[in-house]
Each structure stands twice: as C-alpha cells, then as structure tokens.
Amino acid sequence: MSTQGPKGGNRRGRGGGSGGRGGDTRGRGRGSGKAINRATGRSNTGANKGFSKARGEGQNRQPSYQQRRRSHTAGLGGDRVEGRQAVRELLLAGIRPVREVNIVAGQNQAGGLAQVVELAAELRVPIKELARTKFESLAVTESPQGVIAFAAPLVEHDLEELLRPTDSGPAFLLVLDGVTDPGNVGAALRTAECAGVTGAVLGRHRAAHITPAAAKAAAGAIEHVPMALVPGIPNALARLKELGVWTVGLDVVAPTTIYDVSVASEAVALVVGSEGRGLSRLARQRCDLVVTIPVSGHLSSLNAAAAVAIGCFEIARHR
Q: Residue 28's domain spans which residues?
C-alpha cells in the first residue's frame, strides 16, 4: 500500500515575510556563486552558531552526482533540503544548524522564495546566488523550485524517546515497513505530521530514508516528526509491545477494517508495508491487530502514502 505526495501550499502561513524583501540580492554576484551575508543586525541563533564562518578550500568543492547519491544512503539523512516549502520550514523550525542556502540568480523573489531569503538573512545563514546551469547541476530532485539548503543531518532517536509524553496525549507512531520510494516516504511523513503523529519508525536496511526527494515531498514535516532508524521492523514492533504500545498493521487482507480499531485512543503505532508486497511476514505476525482499508473499485490496493493518509486520520478521529 502507498500514495503520491499530497500537493498544496503552506499549511500554517507562518513567517509571512513580505515579497519585497530579498529582491535586493538580484544582480549581485550573478552566477558567481559568491556568498552573500545578509545579516539584519539581529543576534544569531544557537542553531546556526559557527556556520557563517568561511569554509576550507576542500569543503567548497561540490561533490559529484554519484557522491551526492551515496551520501544519502547512510543514516537518516536530511542534510540536503530542496524546494521552497521544505527549506522554509527548515529555517522556521530552527531545530538544526543550516550551513547555507543556494538560490538561482535573477529569479523573481516573491512568495515562498522571499520568505526563505528573509528567514535566512535573519538567521545569518549565508545565501549563495548561482547561475541556473550551475544550480541545476547541484540539484538532486527534479524540481527544486530554485532553492537548495544544506543543513546538519536529522537526529536519530531511540524508540523509547518517541514514547515520551506530549501535550497531545499518548504516543501515536507511524512505522514504515520497507517502503522504498522516497516520494512515498516524504508524502507519508507530511500526512502523518498533519494527523498528529508523534514519531516515525523506519528500517535501516532495504528502505528509503530521508533523501532530498523525501525531504521535498515531506514539505517540512521532517523538522517536526522525530524519527527512529531501527535494524529490523519486526524486532522494533516487539519492543513497542514491551513498552505498552498497540501495533496496528495495514494489509490488503485482514479480518477487520481500520474503521473498527478500538485501541486508537491509546498509545498506538500504525504499521504500513511496502509498495509491492505490503507488510512483511514477520511484521504482520508481530502486529497486535491487522486491519484493512475496504475498497470498492477494480484495484485491490492503495498506494502506500494513500494508505497512510486514511489510516492516520482514522486513528486521529478517535483521538
């Protein structure tokens, strides 16, 4: 089960920087790649201390495409963020240090891009204006929307950390069992954050992590949903049971439906399988409940991210 990434504009409308600001960078250093420190006089935040210093010569060399691809296979990832909404949320959240923001020289700096430029200036994050050809050679996603940010990687959390009490009540986790499409991972995290999920669990092996494509599809959700990267999903489900969490697996064939889940108001983890096979055999066996989403059409299953959307909001309805 999976989904295509939901589309849409800014959900919160925060950081409403005026479209007029940020326009003063056009024409300066056009295509030169020169860093522009647009400090506004406000004090630097702790998250960005030390990142406005000039970097060494070796660090300024841009990695090759293959090196960039390999750099996102280890760990949780998230150090490269592309797309206006995703970069804007990265800066707004202020959770992790941002090293620099790259934009296309000469583009119209209005709307979301203007907010990105303004936020970067307020946080004293260096802004680089690059010629379009150089920018496109740097981009990894198909549509970076004229902005790429480099930041510290996302912090990996332990399962126990994801269960810490919050103002929203008992833990509500999303577990992705072998989802390999980064777009589905990002879309699932975006939906999960909107539904009030308090944490996500991803497998360390044979699964997509937070690549640039996933970060873009998540549209900033990766800044607000703490994530654990575990060696194996079945063992993680067993551990969640020990910690008092109900595990609810979504599958094509199941004795009951997602609409009949009676434990939704308690500490619960929704487990969603990969795009092709669904839940793995061991993960299915480890779930306390296995439920299905009833369908009426000719197709027998949903895209993984679509299944996440229905499952998460149905659980949220009971909470």
A: 23-37+63-151
Residues of the chain scoring pLDDT < 70: 1-74
Burial 32-71 (b: 16+ CB within 10 A, else e): ebebbebeeeeeeeebbeebbeeeeeeeeeeeeeeebeeb
126 and 261 co-located in one domain: no
Residue 244 CB partners (closer than 8 Å, separation 6+): 267
Indicate the pTM of the whole model.
0.76
Q: Which residues contact 136 (CB under 8 A, 6 or more apart)?
A: none
* pLDDT value of position 74: 61
List of E strands, 20-65: 35-36
Which conformational region is residue 264 in: left (phi greater than 0), alpha (psi within -120 to 50 degrees), or beta? alpha
Distance CA 181, CA 179 (A): 6
The answer to whether residues 80 and 165 belong to one domain is: no
Q: Is the dihedral of CA 151, 93, 127, 107 positive or negative?
A: positive
Question: Are both 124 and 147 inside the same structural domain?
Answer: yes
Q: What is the dihedral of CA 173, 181, 216, 240, to 10 degrees?
A: 10
